[in-house]
Write a structure and sequence with these properties.
The protein is an alpha+beta fold and 502 residues long. It has 4 domains: 4-175, no CATH class; 191-266, no CATH class; 270-363 and 417-496, no CATH class; 366-414, no CATH class. It is built from 16 helices and 20 strands. The strands form 4 sheets. The protein has a 7-stranded antiparallel β-sheet with strand order 6-5-4-10-9-8-7, with helices on both faces. A 7-stranded antiparallel β-sheet has the order 13-12-11-17-16-15-14. Strands 1-2-3 form a 3-stranded antiparallel β-sheet, with no helix packed on it. The longest helix is centred in the middle third of the chain and has 31 residues, at 236-266. It is globular and about 70 Å long. The two termini are 23 Å apart.
Length: 502
């Protein structure tokens, strides 16, 4: 057990590494550039090359003010330990004092961008049991000092958490060594990059290009309409050649962006099982080390798609308790693992799963008609009305094709939506193109809700929604009587469970 005299190295207020001044200054510049980048680009590429003296002076003034602010913030930032709490004091005009008891600490994460790595410092982020997520963040600490602080705080948390063991048993407790479950190789990264959602990347690229056209036109005088007309032309042959040129080029660009983004974000990824839960370390330029306490993990979710199936890969997401605003940020995400790692995660989260009997259920077929109505007939009707007002005819074929496609996907959705119920938890499986599965233990649920629309009330159907501290899980279009039985059963399991949900 950690002794009280171990507090000595944190008992007095301490400052961050002096590198924090530079990092705070860069953060200020990023904020300014993020808000005013169009102005800077317009001035840099101004065809007249005119220089605005007042603007240059303003930039110098902003830089000087940011530098002074960074220095003051550095000298006004202190961290120390007092009375079983970690305390941070900061602020210039508005003083802030943050206190967190040791037993409220959930995880301690490290973050290293390329500058952190160059100066051998890390950013230390402490997540607590509150709903606000990372309440403590120290911009720059020497790596050895950050590791010592993390070990000290976790030891204090362990000693301050009530247990049923005697002090002698706690002293003799053997620490479980870390186990590396996965270490992505360069070839694994290539496979993951190839299997990413390139359509989503293409949509983001297209949206960025479309919203940037005004700035490009202002800077260069070039118009998108003119470029498209020149490339596609007016006759059908030129149009076909233009489309054959544009579409593959756009797909290749989206593919390369996905691949590069995957390598940068998940380079040298290590997925580690710890004595408290799991840990992921990854990143090329920004090295993130993120932990997930097993008690704080509310549910696990894994997905695959046709390309990932070829490589036998799965995505795994460990959803932690957090407010909805930062739930995604708090999740531990592994972009590509194999069945061995997936089984290890499932066994750690739900040890009884393999011994339990799960009863299979499906959702009602009426969900097909509602999806076809909302996503098929309604958009097709709006499209036809718009074409009619424009005086165009002969587009009924495309509207019918759209409705048929929606009908097909809705049928696949209903056919493949299955949920498996056991005495201790539920597994939900959905699939249209890829497959997504969610595993949830009953005692992790915070509340159960039955939702009914007008149409559902007429058909004695409903949506059953499970609310957790990491988000909601919904089963659509099930019989009302079955939903009420499940609601009563789940509430009974929650009330009688002695396991802590977090």
């Amino acid at each position: 057990m950690t002794k009280r005299n171990d507090l000595d190295f944190l008992s007095e207020p301490r400052r961050q590494s002096s590198v924090a001044i530079f990092l705070i200054l860069l953060k200020s510049f990023r904020v300014i550039l993020g808000q005013a980048w169009p102005i800077f680009i317009a001035l840099i590429f101004n065809p007249t090359k005119s220089k605005d003296t007042y603007f240059a002076l303003a930039i110098i003034g902003i830089t000087a003010a940011s530098a002074i602010r960074s220095i003051i913030l550095y000298f006004k930032f202190y961290y120390y330990v007092k009375d079983d709490e970690l305390i941070i004091e900061k602020g210039i005009f508005q003083k802030t004092k943050l206190n967190v008891p040791f037993d409220r600490i959930q995880t301690i994460n490290f973050k290293e961008n390329i500058l952190h790595q160059f100066f051998n410092v890390v950013s230390l982020e402490i997540d607590t049991a509150g709903s606000k997520g990372n309440e403590f963040s120290i911009t720059a600490l020497k790596k050895d000092k950050a590791i010592a602080i993390r070990e000290f705080l976790l030891a204090q948390k362990k000693s301050s958490t009530p247990t049923s063991f005697s002090e002698e048993e706690m002293e003799e407790e053997i620490e479980i060594p870390e186990e590396e479950l996965l270490h992505l190789s360069p070839m694994d990264l290539v496979k993951i990059g190839v299997s990413q959602n390139h359509l989503r990347t293409a949509a983001i690229v297209f949206a960025f290009m479309f919203t940037s056209m005004d700035y490009i036109e202002t800077l260069t005088g070039w118009k998108l309409e003119n470029g498209i007309d020149n490339l596609l032309g007016s006759n059908s042959n030129t149009l076909l050649i233009g489309l054959i040129t544009i579409v593959p080029t756009f797909i290749i660009i989206a593919f390369l962006i996905s691949l590069v983004r995957t390598v940068i974000r998940y380079y040298n990824l290590r997925f580690i099982k710890t004595s408290m839960g799991f840990k992921v370390i990854a990143g090329l330029f920004t090295r993130n080390e993120q932990s997930a306490s097993m008690q704080k993990i509310q549910l696990i979710r894994w997905t695959t798609n046709p390309i990932k199936k070829v490589f036998s890969l799965f995505d795994i997401s460990l959803r932690q308790a957090a407010s909805s605003a930062i739930a995604r940020k708090q999740s531990i995400y592994v972009p590509g693992c194999f069945e061995e790692q997936l089984f290890a995660v499932r066994a750690a989260y739900f040890p009884e799963e393999s011994q339990l009997s799960f009863e299979e259920h499906v959702i009602h077929p009426l969900v097909i008609y509602r999806r076809v109505l909302y996503f098929g007939f309604l958009p097709a009707g709006i499209f036809l009305l718009n074409r009619y007002w424009d005086g165009a005819t002969g587009d009924y074929f495309w509207a019918i094709i759209w409705v048929v496609i929606v009908l097909l996907f809705s049928w696949i959705y209903q056919r493949n939506f299955k949920y498996f119920v056991s005495d201790e938890g539920i597994r939900i499986s959905t699939s249209i193109v890829g497959r997504t599965e969610t595993l949830l233990k009953w005692f992790k649920i915070q509340g159960v809700e039955i939702q009914q629309g007008i149409y559902q009330r007429r058909k004695n159907l409903c949506n059953l929604v499970f609310h957790t501290a990491a988000g909601t899980v919904k089963i659509p279009y099930i019989e009302l009587e079955k939903a009420k039985k499940m609601e009563n059963f789940v509430l009974y399991k929650i009330e009688n469970s002695e396991e802590p949900w977090m």
